[in-house]
Design goal:
Length: about 725
């Protein structure tokens, strides 16, 4: 359950980071795209709450007024945008005469109080007055037009009269048309018919030296507070124009887009914060991803990174030189960010092995013989395969170069010189054929070596191997010779085994046969000791009895060692507390210890140290080690007995300082080996051999270590179950 919960936390934290970073990058990319592509004026417009406060609305008003001024001079021209927009009321007068209008009965623009309309414009005597929500606006400021985004682009400035305004905003001369007189839109009141003669065509050239042609012009205009859609398109003559509605609708769309972008940005930041709060689990997820990407060759990573670098370079060039971004730019931005994040994580997790985990490193390693842990056939096959792949890559590069050379010479040189690239190409094809044939021979050799290696392994395990190299293989004589060696080795092993078995049987039989006469000798010696004998004869009987007992002990020890060596030692397995067994052994040896004059220091754990062994045999091991210390330790010295637990084994040590100088390079666990060969004090040299044999029979190991005069016997036994921590107590 804990593992599932941990995996779920890793997955959730990673998904939160992915989604959070994606939303944040998309929102930032969208904002950057619109800032660059729409400009600061449009971005400022998008932040306004009222569409009549935007720069786009000011441009639309300027556009409408331009049409009205042109209508004043050219009554026969087709309907302008301002005349088609039903969200705008207007009237054009020449003095008191009404030239054109779309106001209904009961509507009066002079009062500036038409229901549903809150913006009013009045053009008179070359000046423009504006009112919004009943308040008059400051149009001209200091009276100088500087073409800044916060100015109204209207006639009436000191440096921008009506004629200059029309040329400035339209960049074309005002011309008449041959179309019919404009008719009012359906549902609108017809404009009062003008009795004046049709106005002549007016151009900037015709205005030279004349008085202001708009001197008697009065234009009033009212804009709806909430424009509605009337249908139609501006391009079709007589249809409705929805310029003001488009201004308001565009602002509503911008507000919706900003709300979505802002919501996405906040959601992305919240998800990023959540993933960072679970950074431990997020780190585990990134580590798992790093392990996966760490197995990919570096060349493939760089190949995948190349399109991203080209994309980023192209985008950066657009941003620096053109200050423009394509419309699909920010859709690819999250992908680019994720690729960069993935490469950064791969670099952090695998920076120490990036170069080693590459095709080049793999090929070089194969060619120089790395991978000694692999079997010989697989190692050879890998080397030949790497050589083939590298050669093919080089051949492909050479072929491309040869094709380029051929195309170049075909265009710029004479025909005889084309023989050189054709010859190079032919040689390359021949080389590839020989390379493939060589690779096949290498594979066959690797297969034969595999069979030979299998035969060697079979010899090592003492099995018979029949899968030999074929008759055509050059390794077959070697395999046959190896099989002959195997036969000879088996015969030698069998002979040695028979000899060893005979030795063990001889020792066992001799030991068994010596028991009967020894028993008789001991019995008669016991009887003689009970008789009335002269003092000198009694001394002889005492010596005879001691030597016979010693001989009996030696025979018994030789018998036990022989049984252990032959694997015939009877074992009684049980669960034991090794610390308790050591305490019991020390208690049984309390009297000899007290008489020895030695000081014993013990360090045994209070908690049980469970092992599985034969209690009697293990008791005999420690008894022999303690008796060895009692016999050969320096008088008045200290003997240290400790038991420690480490990892999954128990280690018991018996350490003492030797009375005699210890020889170097001697295996004290061999039979009949003593520290001082010249001693004749009754030691048989079998005590440590018996201890080593019994320890091995119990599944442990006895190790003797000497350092100058320091003698250490160390018994290692496997634990039934390892304790939580190593605890020892004196």
């Amino acid at each position: 359950m804990d593992t599932k919960w941990k995996n779920m936390k890793c997955t959730v934290s990673f998904l939160a980071f992915v989604l959070g970073l994606t939303l944040t990058v998309l929102a930032a990319g969208f904002a950057l795209f619109y800032t660059l592509n729409q400009g600061p004026r449009q971005m400022w417009d998008n932040l306004q709450s009222d569409y009549q406060q935007t720069h786009s609305f000011r441009s639309e008003v300027r556009y409408y007024l331009e049409g009205y001024l042109e209508r004043y001079l050219n009554p026969n021209m087709e309907l302008t945008a301002g005349e088609r927009d039903r969200n705008v009321l207007y009237e054009i007068r020449d003095g008191q005469e009404l030239l054109s209008s779309n106001i209904r009965e009961g509507q009066d623009l002079t009062s500036r109080n038409v229901v549903g309309y809150n913006f009013y414009l009045e053009y008179r005597s070359g000046k423009v007055s504006l009112w919004k929500d009943g308040k008059e606006l400051d149009v001209y400021g200091d009276g100088v037009f500087r073409d800044t985004w916060d100015q109204w682009e209207l006639p009436g400035y000191d440096n921008l009269d009506t004629a200059a305004f029309l040329n400035y905003v339209g960049d074309y001369p005002v011309e008449g048309t041959d179309t019919a007189i404009a008719t009012p839109l359906p549902g609108l009141a017809p404009a009062a018919e003008s009795t004046a003669a049709p106005a002549e065509t007016v151009t900037p050239e015709s205005q030279a030296g004349r008085s202001d042609p708009w001197a008697g012009c009065t234009i009033r205009m009212a804009v709806a507070e909430t424009p509605v859609y009337y249908g139609g398109t501006a391009a079709y003559t007589g249809s409705y124009y929805n310029g003001m509605y488009w201004q308001a609708d565009s602002l509503r769309g911008a507000h919706l887009a900003l709300s979505i972008v802002g919501g996405a940005l906040l959601a992305g930041i919240a998800l990023l914060v959540w993933s960072l709060l679970w950074r431990r689990w997020l780190g585990m997820a990134w580590a798992a991803i790093g392990r996966v990407t760490g197995r990919i060759w570096l060349e493939f990573k760089l190949l995948l990174l190349l399109p991203l670098l080209v994309y980023l370079a192209t985008t950066l060039a657009q941003l620096i030189f053109a200050r423009y971004l394509s419309s699909n730019w920010f859709f690819f931005l999250p992908l680019a960010v994720w690729v960069l994040v993935g490469y950064a994580n791969d670099f952090v997790r695998n920076r120490g092995r990036l170069l080693r985990q590459s095709f080049c490193a793999w090929a070089v390693g194969c060619l120089r013989g790395d991978g000694l842990d692999l079997p010989l056939p697989k190692s050879l096959q890998r080397e030949s395969f790497a050589a083939l792949i590298v050669s093919l890559i080089l051949a492909a590069g050479a072929a491309l170069l040869d094709l380029w050379l051929l195309s170049y010479m075909w265009r710029y040189t004479s025909f005889p010189t084309l023989f050189l690239p054709f010859l190079l190409g032919l040689l390359g094809v021949v080389f590839l054929v020989f390379l493939v044939l060589h690779w096949k021979r290498q594979r066959a050799l690797a297969a034969d070596l595999g069979r030979l290696s299998g035969q060697i392994e079979a010899v090592r395990r003492g099995r018979e191997w029949t899968d030999l190299p074929g008759e055509e293989s050059g390794l077959r004589p070697l395999a046959l010779g190896l099989r002959d060696i195997d036969s000879g080795l088996q015969e030698a092993v069998e002979a040695r085994t028979r000899s060893q078995r005979m030795k063990v049987e001889l020792i066992t039989n001799v030991s068994h046969d010596l028991k009967t006469p020894l028993t008789s000798i001991l019995s008669y010696a016991e009887l003689l000791s009970q008789e009335e004998l002269p003092p000198q004869a009694r001394d002889y009987v005492t010596i005879l009895n001691e030597k016979a007992l010693r001989l009996k002990t030696m025979v018994q020890e030789v018998f036990e060692v022989s049984k252990a060596a032959s694997g015939e030692l009877a074992m009684h397995w049980e669960d034991l507390d090794l610390a308790k067994l050591l305490r019991q052994t020390l208690a049984d040896q309390a009297e000899p210890i007290a008489q020895s004059g030695l000081t014993f220091r013990t360090e045994l754990p209070q908690d049980p140290v469970p092992v599985r062994a034969d209690g009697d045999r293990l008791y005999r091991v420690f008894q022999n080690l303690i008796q060895n210390a009692l016999k050969y330790a320096l008088e008045g010295s200290r003997v240290y007995i400790s038991l420690t637990v480490r990892e999954k084994e128990a280690v018991a040590r018996v350490q003492n300082t030797s009375r005699e100088e210890l020889p170097q390079g001697v295996d004290f666990t061999e039979r009949f080996v003593r520290g001082d060969p010249s001693r004749t004090d009754g030691g048989s040299g079998l005590g440590l051999a018996i201890a080593a044999s019994f320890t091995q029979a119990c599944g442990g190991e006895l190790e003797i270590v000497t350092d100058a005069d320091l003698f250490t016997a160390q018994v290692r036994l496997p634990l039934l179950q390892a304790p939580a921590a190593e605890e020892t107590a004196p």
